[in-house]
Amino acid sequence: MSKTISIIGSGYSSMVAACCLADKGMDVTIYEKNEMAGGRASKFEDGGFTFDMGPSWYWMPEVFENFFNRFGRTSSDFYELVRLDPGYQVYFQGDESIGIPANKEELFELFESIETGSAAKLEKFLNEAAYKYKVGMEEYVWKPGKSVLEFVDMKVLKSFMKLQMLSSVSTTVKSLFKDKRLQQILEFPVLFLGSMPNRIPALYTLMNHADLSLGTWYPKGGMYKVSEAFYQLALSLGVKFKFNCEITNVKIDNRKITAIESKAESFDTDFVIAGADYQHFDRAVLPSKYSNYSEEYWDSREMAPSSLLFFLGFDKKIDGLEHHNLFFDTDFDTHAKEIYQSPQWPSDPLFYICAPSKTDEGIAPEGYENVFALIPIAPGLKEDKELHDKYLNEIIVRIEKKTGCDIRESLVYQKSFSISDFKSRYNAFKGNAYGLANTLKQTAVLKPKYYNKNLDNLYYTGQLTVPGPGMPPAIISGQLVADEFLKNANFENNGQTIHKDFQRV
Ligand SMILES: Cc1cc2nc3c(=O)[nH]c(=O)nc-3n(C[C@H](O)[C@H](O)[C@H](O)COP(=O)(O)OP(=O)(O)OC[C@H]3O[C@@H](n4cnc5c(N)ncnc54)[C@H](O)[C@@H]3O)c2cc1C
């Protein structure tokens, strides 16, 4: 008999771990509180529109590809990937907007036209970013973060200084480029890592390689196509799914979880992988004496921002918008302080607009525009409908101002989603959107551990553990935890699976 593995949640990391383990013959079931697979990468359809509810930037396509290749598949078995050109557009203060070309030569020309000498600097900067990306992706990101000893390796140590772990992204960028617009373009990618560019180690300029060299991609049909692909792959490998099944409790015997329980049912299990938000499973599902971390620990973590999201439908095309649009037309420092230093609703926020119907006709009625708006906000804020309406109004005013296109009367669909929705839909700690900030103090061995120290058959995966937030890290997290699990498994006995207990370090 193969052992049963119960995975809580159906986010990317959970489905990825499930595929890897089912592929080795294990009996894997995913328990998901919501009605569909994908976690934060869910979708909904309404009024003729198909809205992605979470991620919209498809970066690091090789991470997705390598995962599919593990099973002899490729992304093209499941969806069509197109590279966006321009990758995105940035609106600055004043009347200016800049589109970031996919072509490198055009990119260098663009930089040079803004600041003399910056093309050569950008080329050098991107070469270094490519080196950091290679070392980061090959040496750092696959470390499970059990112990610092994992990093005691000559290649990694040698690269440590070159990777500028002790400097910040902001220092590096500002030392090379004086023009504020160029600085903003190069600092923007680390916003995905949930903190300010001056608090993120310069190693993460590797994100500029992902952005400007590897490019911005889009799966036709929407980002949910990726969730669907993982779901189909998992089914084909024998993974079972139980939807609308929130796990609220566990039975424990002799340092092991023996069953997981929803309000209605109990499911016996040999092993558990918690892919739901780590803090939720650790503090709200496990009895506190088995939790890995205390309430004080969680309260002292620096969370990545939450988001105020709007799903909007317009009955006309909005000229002037591209697929991805960054509205950096207000003061970033003030907004950043309102997220990180004195958490409050932003007075004059930056925001992001995604108009995927620019690339994809299938996700909106013909001639209509599908628009997703995101304002980063501090997690844990109090909110109400009036506040949401105020920010929607501001977004409309600024889109109209920047594009010169009247859109207010064309708004035919609107829905907001924010902190309380993140809590109720995903059990998200403080209503976070992207997990923990990737600051130096919360990196690698300093992240919440992927195993439970009090229970011998519980692992954790997802954006709150190694390697961090984002779709590619979630895909890596699922493989990392499955591989660690498999290291402790024994495939003797004519292919029957026999597990040893987890080995602790
Ligand atoms: C608005 C937004 C925009 C983003 N944009 C991008 C982007 O552009 N590019 C990018 O790379 N990343 C982006 N991200 C981040 C990315 O989506 C996440 O990092 C990633 O999807 C997290 O995956 P995960 O495996 O940690 O699981 P999650 O997606 O967090 O899924 C966890 C699942 O667990 C379920 N669950 C919770 N509690 C229970 C329970 N008790 N029982 C059963 N199930 C439970 C939840 O319902 C959920 O389905 C974005 C995220 C958000 C929210």
Walk me through this protein's architecture.
Helix content is 33%, strand content 19%. The protein folds into 3 domains: 4-43 and 60-78 and 222-301 and 436-499, FAD/NAD(P)-binding domain (3-Layer(bba) Sandwich); 105-214, Guanine Nucleotide Dissociation Inhibitor, domain 1 (Orthogonal Bundle), CATH 1.10.405; 302-426. The model is unreliable at 491-505 (pLDDT under 50). 48% of the residues are buried. It has helices at residues 12-22, 61-69, 104-114, 118-140, 154-162, 169-176, 180-187, 206-214, 224-236, 278-285, 295-299, 332-340, 385-403, 419-426, 471-487; strands spanning 4-8, 27-31, 43-46, 49-52, 81-83, 88-92, 97-100, 217-219, 240-242, 249-253, 256-261, 266-268, 271-274, 306-314, 324-328, 351-354, 369-377, 411-417, 458-460, 489-490, 498-499. It has a 7-stranded mixed sheet, sandwiched between helices. The chain has a 5-stranded parallel sheet with strand order 9-2-1-13-19, with helices on one face. A 3-stranded antiparallel sheet has the order 10-11-12, with no helix packed on it. It is globular and about 65 Å long. The protein has 505 residues and is α/β, with parallel strands linked by helices. Flavin-adenine dinucleotide (FAD) binds next to helix 1, helix 10, strand 14 and helix 15.
Write the topology of this structure.
Layout: E1 4-8, H1 12-22, E2 27-31, E3 43-46, E4 49-52, H2 61-69, E5 81-83, E6 88-92, E7 97-100, H3 104-114, H4 118-140, H5 154-162, H6 169-176, H7 180-187, H8 206-214, E8 217-219, H9 224-236, E9 240-242, E10 249-253, E11 256-261, E12 266-268, E13 271-274, H10 278-285, H11 295-299, E14 306-314, E15 324-328, H12 332-340, E16 351-354, E17 369-377, H13 385-403, E18 411-417, H14 419-426, E19 458-460, H15 471-487, E20 489-490, E21 498-499
Parallel strand pairs: 1-2, 1-13, 2-9, 6-15, 13-19
Antiparallel strand pairs: 3-4, 5-8, 6-7, 10-11, 11-12, 14-17, 14-18, 15-16, 16-17, 20-21
The structure holds flavin-adenine dinucleotide.
